[in-house]
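INFO worker-7 received task bundle
INFO bundle size: 2
INFO processing item 0
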Amino acid sequence: MSVEFIGYAAARQASEIVAPEGPVIQPGYLREVARAHEEAGFDRVLIAQSASSPDGFVLADQVLAATERLGVLLAHRPGFVAPTQAARKFATLDAFHPGRVALHVITGGDDADQARDGDLTDKATRYRRTDDFLSVVRKTWDAAEPFDHDGEFYQVRGARSDVRPDRIPVYFGGASADAIRVGAKHADVYAFWGEPLAGIAQRIEEVRAAAAPHGRTPAFSVSLRPIPAATEAEAWDRARDILRLTQDRVGEFKGVRDSSAAVGSQRLLEAAATGEVHDERLWTAVAKTTGAAGNSTALVGSYEQVADSLLDYLRLGVGTLLIRGFSPLADARDYGALVRLVRERAGAATVGA
């Protein structure tokens, strides 16, 4: 079993338990957290996007310039930049850092946050627009000759790009029927929140079935928040501290993002309603507290136990693990032991197959 590890990098440190301090842009911190991920053995870091966050292309370039091997998974919302321009922006970034750039397509599940940037469309319309957007992006990357495109949202004439990448993988997130329909058509890697194993197995089958008519076989990613420690008891002590700190701060950030209409968040809350712990160590208490606003389910246990739980997802057919901590910089450093354990055990499983 091969595995790709993706972490998380932002321009300043913040989380459910860490209140942001100082300027929004802290170049020294961004470089430090990027290097911490590289030293820990991560393959990429996610650069997230919202209607109030710093420009992701600039942050991605800073991360890539500060490291030698680490890649970026750069989130991008279709609808605000023309697809031909977006394709050239990604291709230009990749030309400076070949093979280290990936596109993470975020169609947008929060109507209010979309509206902050002037997008008042509904989710169904946004997914149709994403479909059209990605069709043009692919053509821009691949076409050796000028091309025309006539879609519902985008029409171009004689489009061409002087810079074309060898390959920029497309990651895609979303849990609704519209998301699966569009993502299965375009995604190289389809991304899920950290659901119980049975839910991930179900979703993999749904995406594979939707991708088959397009002749596609996407890979899969799961996003989780590991809480490892030397012993299981110590890990649960830490988890309870994280929950207490999250509960103390939840009023500060719960209203910033409305995840109530996001099917992925609804699925996490449904899991939380049926039990605080699934599959031995998938912990849902933080997801329940925050309204499942994003990646919010944790794996709690010793390093060996958490590594085994991550391997359970790999056995289902997952190839990418997007993991980030509640103490972003310290956890990025600490996860090096976890990354090594998983890779060793995944390699041993492959040899023994």
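INFO item 0 finished
INFO processing item 1
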Amino acid sequence: MSKKPALLSLCLLLSGLTAWVQAAPLPFDHHGVILQYHHVSTDTPAVTSLSPERFAEHMQYIADHHQVVPLPELIEKVKSGQALPEKAVAITFDDGFENILQNAHPILKKHGFNYTIFINPALIGTEAHQLTWEQVKQMQEEGVWFANHTNHHQHLLTRGDMNKEQWLAHLKTEIQTAEAMLEDKLGYSLKYLAYPFGEFNRDLQQLVRELGYTGFGQQSGAVAPYSDMTALPRFPAAGIYANLNSLKVKLASLAMPSLYEPLDPELSRDSLQPQWTTKIDTSDIRPKQLACYFRGDPLDIIWETPDVFSLTLPQPLTAGRARVNCTAPSIRDQSRYYWHSQPFFVPTAEGKWLD
């Protein structure tokens, strides 16, 4: 097992930017990957689904090449800087759909894989195709973890007529009500929060930080001790992302050591073509091998210094969700890629958020 570096990342708050200083690249066993699924079914929305057969292929590959760890173990070790099993993977689902129990659970149980489901307590047992509390408790007895996906699965960035203080108070109630019900029903509180639709902004992140929660998004990337614990990335692995060949690269990915605070992902209607600057730790990355992509197309990277580069989107964003992914192979192992994702969330002209 790789030795722990003498000095782990040190967080410095300078001029409103979060910077991370490292003495050496983190050992590979300090990086982990979190996968995100929704439906395992052939009769659910294609964008968030994959078939049981394809899911079984994913799990068999993981069983052959990776080590699945419970999400709480991965988060605890990442936060404390402890080594993980080599090529550690945690498996998560968003929304408490019954097809998880029917189609995914038997496959996961066959491999002895632990996993976590982020659920909306107000919807459990009350909406069609959702798990019941009896099923949740049955799965809990078989080792499944359950965590907070807010109480009602709404777009958290919706403000309506609320001012900022009212909106944050509403979100606080939505989060804490769900957590209290989970603790009442299951007997524990992980204080994890997966953002519905993966949508968040800096104000929401600050609330999550103040409440003592760990936040999970839906943007791509691996996690490491220097990751932002209010918006941890997870690789979506269903729909257009279900291809096993591309998933193999993601499963072996490393968390890119970005040294500047990411851009606020919520964009206003008058700022739809953002330009931003990023600094990365290049001790295990060759800058010339860095590539950034938007909707599958490469972006022009403007290097301002040997470790600082800027990006500009080629056209204005429309309403919905988008992301820019940047990757670079590790110098130590060219088969493993550092990965960083900048998400963007844009409302409609009427201020609504798209499903």
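INFO item 1 finished
INFO post-check item 1: Confidence is low (pLDDT under 50) at residues 1-23.
INFO post-check item 1: Helices lie at 52-65, 71-80, 98-111, 133-141, 164-186, 202-211, 244-251.
INFO worker-7 idle
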